[in-house]
Write a structure and sequence with these properties.
The complex is a heterodimer of chains A (341) and B (245). Chain A has 341 residues and is α+β, with helices and mostly antiparallel strands. Chain A has three domains: 165 residues, no CATH class; 110 residues, Cyclophilin (Beta Barrel); 47 residues. Chain A is built from five helices and 20 strands. In chain A, helix 4 runs antiparallel to helix 5. In chain B, strand 3 and strand 4 form a beta hairpin. In chain B, helix 3 packs across helix 4. The chains are: A alpha+beta (341), B alpha+beta (245). At the A-B interface, strand 15, strand 19 and helix 4 of A face strand 1, helix 1, strand 3 and strand 4 of B.
Chain lengths: 341, 245
């Protein structure tokens, strides 16, 4: 069913899910949301399955007119959100009625924002098991392209949202991230000790050549001694160093294979901070080992699981009816689960 | 003696690395491992994706379900077992028509000069071999193939072209391949196939890693004819199957 119409296309707005996996063997980039944490949070807020398709935009959100009742959530980059010209909040569920109009002001902090829609997200036709748009291949989303004015978005109606009041997430909008953690990359040892040292000693900025394929950094490093490399698989967060020393961080729309040496790889727990890095913001890389990187990732996931559990908990008004005694115990158990957050 | 080793690419991916060579046998092994890991009924939970390349296999995994050392042990056992031999290769050769016209192949003369031969000799040589598809990458359906004879293995252009037409066939050192989509690129262009190699409406590629491709030189008239047939959906690539080598 058509749930909304695009009345302004915003900037680089496309339909994304977690990504198109298991087709890199055929040369297809994974694509998918560039800030997976913000994407997942948006889906969590509207009680969606984790892989429900959402709209991703860069620097300016699209304007949408809704045709029926639903719930949405906006996450990611910090920007003014309006429903019928009234200021609305990011990082919480917004109730939407027929003929409501969603508009945005330009992004104030960060780069990529997400709009998730309740009851399963955008119901476009999956291509090769994913709804993610890959522009270069012309597949996914709406005919493999960016949103355009007049596009009709297929959604499900939604009248109810469990524990509506508690579905919000406190984001510290003022927090400045200046440290991005990395692990040694597969070609770390091909680099001169001076380059290895400078990677963590000097500061970097994201250049203006930054898109979903990758971010070029402004500051250069000593390139690896000329070694002819056969192309090999790439992963999200790989920091390639080109022949003239230019670092390029590979992101969602990266080519499946590459031939430049990779000095380091950003850890998954810091992907979100890196892709949202404000223009001109100086940051430094710090080196961590693999167990630390894994631990950080699992801790982060655990935190979101607890958040979801707390919303589930709020769904029931404790204590209720005859189950009063058990309910109190369950509540105590859940509360202890929440400690240490 | 194992001739491979493992290198982590990040906390969620591991590279299986064979010697730094372009070798059909090793690449076939890599392809078999990759497909084995992608089986829907796999006995190894936590595999997210695989990227087979010339001499490497990149495996992405979920560290909540699978640890790198478990994955290494599993791959060690898999390589030593006979499980992969069951799928012994049938040599599958696709015959791809290519028009080696000066208009489509702006580098014909320079590559012929590099090989100290005439353009017709170059065309004969380039279309006289079954090229093995080592990997698909760069663009959907971009096949990295080899091995181009040393005599004509001219390195790629110093300055890549901004626009290369879809279907262009080129060489880069010992590699040869086709551009499935219009894109920038630095390979030396010898000709163009009239066959549409990538169609977003039918995105699955016409060939996969492990296949062979044999170029068949065609005239400009045949190029136009095949292109018309192909656009009408009436052209079928000829194939040849041989017992595995």
């Amino acid at each position: 069913m058509i749930g909304a119409t695009v009345i302004d296309k915003g900037l680089s707005a496309s339909i994304q899910d977690l990504g198109r996996f298991r087709h890199q063997i055929e040369g297809f980039p994974t694509s998918g949301a560039i800030d997976q944490a913000a994407f997942c949070l948006a889906n969590d807020l509207v009680n969606n399955p984790v892989n429900a398709a959402a709209i991703e935009f860069c620097l300016l959100g699209p304007s949408l007119k809704f045709h029926f009742r639903t719930f949405i959530a906006i996450t990611g980059a910090v920007c003014p959100v309006f429903v019928n010209a009234q200021r609305a909040e990011e990082n919480q569920v917004l109730e939407i009625f027929e003929n409501d109009v969603l508009t945005f002001g330009p992004v104030k902090r960060g780069r990529y924002g997400y709009i998730a829609f309740a009851a399963g997200g955008l119901l476009t036709v999956p291509v090769l098991d994913s709804r993610s748009t890959t522009l270069r291949a012309g597949i996914g989303g709406l005919d493999g392209r960016l949103l355009q004015k007049g596009d009709q978005l297929p959604l499900n109606e939604c009248y109810q949202m469990p524990s509506l009041q508690s579905r919000q997430y406190a984001v510290d909008e003022k927090k400045v991230v200046t440290g991005i953690r990395v692990v040694k990359g597969p070609q770390w040892s091909l680099f001169d000790p001076a380059a290895q040292e400078n990677l963590v000693k000097q500061t970097f900025t994201v250049s203006t050549q930054a898109d979903r394929m990758g971010y070029r950094l402004t500051e250069k490093l000593l390139p690896a001694a000329q070694v002819s490399l056969l192309s090999e698989g790439t992963v999200f967060g790989n920091i390639q160093i080109t022949r003239n020393g230019q670092p390029i961080v590979l992101l969602a729309d990266r080519q499946t294979t590459g031939g430049y040496p990779v000095i380091a790889t950003i850890i998954a727990a810091d992907f979100s901070a890196f892709v949202q890095m404000p223009l001109g913001q100086k940051f430094a890389f710090t080196l961590v080992d693999l167990p630390k990187a894994q631990q950080e990732l699992l801790v982060r996931r655990q935190r979101f699981k607890r958040l979801l559990a707390s919303w589930q908990q709020a769904r029931y008004q404790f204590p209720i009816g005859p189950a009063r005694k058990a309910a109190v115990k369950i509540q105590a158990l859940l509360a202890s689960e929440n400690e240490g957050d | 003696m194992a001739d491979y080793f493992f290198v982590p690419v990040g906390e969620q991916s591991l590279n299986l690395i064979f010697p730094n060579l372009i070798d059909v046998k090793k690449n076939q092994l890599i392809q078999h491992i990759a497909r084995y890991l992608l089986r829907p009924d796999t006995d190894l939970p936590g595999i997210v994706d695989v990227i087979p390349a010339y001499h490497t296999l990149t495996v992405n995994f979920d560290p909540a379900l699978l640890q790198a050392d478990e994955l290494q042990d599993y791959l060690d056992r898999l390589i030593q077992s006979k499980k992969l031999e069951a799928s012994a290769p049938v040599k599958h050769v696709l015959l791809l028509p290519v028009c080696y016209d000066e208009e489509f192949g702006p580098d014909l003369t320079s590559v012929a000069d590099y090989g100290h031969m005439t353009v017709p000799e170059l065309i004969d040589l380039h279309s006289s071999l079954d090229y093995f598809v080592y990997m698909l990458g760069f663009l959907p359906g971009f096949a990295y193939m080899g091995t181009v004879p040393d005599r004509i293995a001219m390195p790629r252009l110093d300055q890549p072209r901004a626009v290369i037409a879809a279907g262009s066939v080129g060489i880069a050192g010992q590699q040869t391949g086709m551009y499935p989509l219009q894109s920038p690129g630095g390979w030396r262009l010898l000709g163009r196939t009239p066959v549409r190699l990538y169609d977003p409406k039918r995105p699955a590629p016409l060939y996969e890693a492990g296949d062979y491709i044999r170029f068949q030189a065609i005239s400009r008239a045949d190029y136009n004819k095949i292109q018309q047939l192909d656009q009408a959906g009436k052209f079928q690539l000829a194939q040849r199957k041989e017992a595995g080598s």
